[in-house]
Every structure is written in C-alpha cells, then in structure tokens.
Amino acid sequence: MLKFYTAGESHGQALFAYISGLPAQLPIDLKSIDNELHRRQLGYGRGGRQKIEKDHAEVFAGVRHGKTIGAPIALRIENRDWANWEKILPVEPAEDDPGSKKLVAPRPGHADLAGSLKFNYHDARYILERASARETAARVAAGAFAKILLKEFDTEIASHTIQVGHIRLEHPVPWKKIRAVSADLDSPLRCADAALQEKMKEEVDAALKANDTVGGIFEIVAHNVPPGLGSHAQWDEKLDGRLAQTLMSVQAVKAVEIGDGVSIAASHGSDVQDEISYDKAAHRFRRFTNRAGGLEGGITNGEDIVIRGYLKPISTLRKPLHTANLVTKEPVQAAYERSDWCVVPAGAVAGEAMVALVLADTFLQKFGGDSLPEMRRNFDNYVRQIDEF
Ligand code: EPS
C-alpha cells in the first residue's frame, strides 16, 4: 500500500514529504520531480511568492544510485522565504514575539476562523501557515514519484484548463493535445484553445484590476489505465470515491466531477451510458463515448480516467471583505496576505499529483510486488488475462 504524508508551513524553513510503499528498483529521475515543482509554480495570475521560490526536492532517504530500495522515501523542499520569517516564526521560544505578523482579522473563505476556533488560537497565523496552498509543493513532489511508477506501465497523467471565470472551453480535447499543453511551460493558463486562452487571460487581468480573484475548472486525464483497478465491493474501495475525496483535499477545490457527471444528471440513461463494442484485433472492449470518465461501479473500465476540479476564487483579496476581529469580536476588514489572483494551472498540477498517488496505490494493490520486476511480471500476467478474456 502506498502511503504519503507532508509536513511544513508556508513560511517555515522547509516543506517535507514522506512516501512509503513504492517497489524497489524503480529508476528515479530527480529532474522530473523538479520539473513538476516548476510546473506548479507557473500560471498566469500567480503572486509574488513564486518569484522568491525556485522549488527543488532534496531526497534524503529511500533512493540509492538513482533507484528506490523498497524503503520509505523522505524529501525536503526549502522555503527561500524563510530568511524573511525566521525571527517571526522561530522553532525555539522567542522573547519578543513581533506581533506584526499576527492575523486577527480572519479572511472569509480561508481556514483562518474555523482553524482558530478548532485550535483555540486568537491569532490565525498558526492556521494559515499550514492551510496555505504552499503545502501542495510537497504533494507535487510526492506525486512525481507516483507518476514515475505509473509511466513504467505506460499510464500517464496530464491536465488542462477548461474554464477561468466565465470563459469555458466547450469542445472536447484529444489526449495528445492535452498532454502537449499540460507539459508546455510557456502556456500561461494551459488551455488547449489559444483564442479562448486569451479571453481567460482577460478574465485574470480584470480580476487583478478589480483587486479580486478568479476561479475556474481544470481537467485531469489519466491515459492508458488498465481495466479492473479499484472495486465495487466496499464503499472505501470505490476508486471514483477515492479520487473525488483526494481531489477535494486540494486547497480551493470546492467541487469534483468524474466524466460528464454534472451534465448527465439532466439527461436520460439511454443518452449517456457509454455503449460497448469489442475490438477483435486489439482483444479489447471499447466504448463509443467516455461520459463515465473511465470509471463504472468504482472500477476502471479501460477508458481514460477524466476528473475535473472546480476551484473557487482564492480567499485572499486585495479588496477586503467584512469579518470580525478574533480578539475584540468587533467588525473589521479581512486581513490581506501577499497572494495569487488565479491558481487554476497550479491547482491542476497539485490535482495531477493526487490522482497519481491514488492510482499508483491501486496499481500496487492489484499488481503488488516488492520490486519493479516482480510487479511487472504480475502486471504482464494480468494483461495476458485480459487479452485472453
Ligand atoms: C503559495 C504560496 C503562498 C501564497 C499562496 C500560494 O505564499 P505566500 O503566502 O508567502 O505568498 O502565495 O497561498 C495562498 C494564497 C493561500 O491562501 O493558500 C504557493 O506556493 O502555491
């Protein structure tokens, strides 16, 4: 079973990720991990922090001579911004607590108030430090290891932006185009339609001009996924449920959709179920459509997994909203922290990592193997079983 945890705060010394359960002898291209981290930092509408950081994953355990050894992996991502915060957020007790960074005006939409009530803090600083989307850098680094494992079995994950503000990409995009735009480090919003992307950029510019933020929708596709992953047998084994929960855990995601889940709710069954044929040459069952997004009954059906994350406009606004002071309870204007004003591409990269981590776990559950060669033998046997079905 693949497990991963992150630790670290946005303005602490570093972020950490711990991953266990990967098979031994998996070749690890450390550059690919930093490329994922770089992708996460990009995006039209990202704030000043991304000019400070140049995220790099230092691996401290679990990898030797460029390959996993079947032991837990530990990595660290330094926060360059720590130089500006070490006196404000020291680990050791500090005599004079420079209250300048206290946050007593909780931002509506952030974890500030809910977290302060939960942990009995009258200063939301200690909540926002962990709640910040900065934490997704650690998840992206962990997800990069999962992507490397999946790639060994020709399963790939990519994403693209399908909506920013009111601007929506309506037409379907083929996998090859999604893959290309997902990897394009120069694409401002990773939208496959260049003309529409210009309109999306105008939405982002308008939000900044109005001292506001803007949300959107990203679509993640897992390509070349074998049928039979996940299970219908128990509520917590249903892969659609696991993926939905995983994506919801990414900061600012407020809704998740698998396949055409939202639009088909208003349709008839005969119009939306994906009818089936059999491709004799390829020894594969095929679908004429993929409205189910590659999952039926909580189990992969061999089509691409398609999952969308609906991102709220982030909560930190230059145009402050009404709130109440945590100490005096008096009405005040919400605090402002340096921030982004559109994070759809960044949210998509974090989402890709989370989907990769869950899919890698389902691969390990189905094919097991303490070493990559053993896992591959199990995988090849299963593929033969499907061929001979
Ligand atoms: C982010 C880092 C943060 C924020 C942003 C995303 O850095 P800082 O707070 O130092 O600017 O820019 O996080 C939020 C706005 C938030 O509320 O979560 C990052 O690295 O993704």
Structure, explained:
The protein contains twelve helices and 17 strands. It is an alpha+beta fold. The chain has one domain: Chorismate synthase, AroC fold (4-Layer Sandwich), CATH 3.60.150.10. It has a five-stranded antiparallel beta sheet with strand order 8-7-9-15-10. The protein has a four-stranded antiparallel beta sheet with strand order 1-2-6-3. A hairpin with a 2-residue loop joins strand 13 and strand 14 (299-300). Helix 3 packs across helix 4. The protein is globular. The relative contact order is 0.18. Ligand EPS binds at residues 10, 47, 49, 81, 110, 132-134, 136-137, 251, 314, 316, 337-340, 346.
List the helices and strands and how they pair.
Blueprint: E1 3-7, E2 14-20, H1 30-41, H2 49-52, E3 57-61, E4 63-64, E5 67-68, E6 73-78, H3 112-119, H4 125-131, H5 136-151, E7 156-164, E8 167-168, H6 175-183, H7 194-209, E9 216-223, H8 239-248, E10 253-258, H9 261-264, H10 269-272, E11 276-279, E12 284-287, E13 295-296, E14 299-300, E15 305-311, E16 322-324, E17 331-333, H11 344-367, H12 372-387
Antiparallel strand pairs: 1-2, 2-6, 3-6, 4-5, 7-8, 7-9, 9-15, 10-15, 11-12, 13-14, 16-17
This protein binds ligand EPS.
Instruction: Enumerate the strands of the largest sheet in spatial order, edge to edge or round the barrel.
Output: 8-7-9-15-10
Q: What is the CATH class name?
A: Alpha Beta
Shape: globular
Helix percentage range: 25-40%
User: Can you tell me the CATH architecture?
Assistant: 4-Layer Sandwich
Q: What amount of the residues lies in strands?
A: 15-25%
Low-confidence runs: none
The name of the CATH superfamily reads Chorismate synthase AroC
How many domains comprise the coordinates? 1
How many DSSP helices?
Answer: 12
Distance between the termini: 28 Å
CATH fold name: Chorismate synthase, AroC fold
Radius of gyration (CA) equals: 22 Å
Q: Give the H and E element order.
A: EEHHEEEEHHHEEHHEHEHHEEEEEEEHH
* Tally of strands: 17
Mean pLDDT score: 96
Structural class: alpha+beta
Biggest sheet character: 5 strands, antiparallel
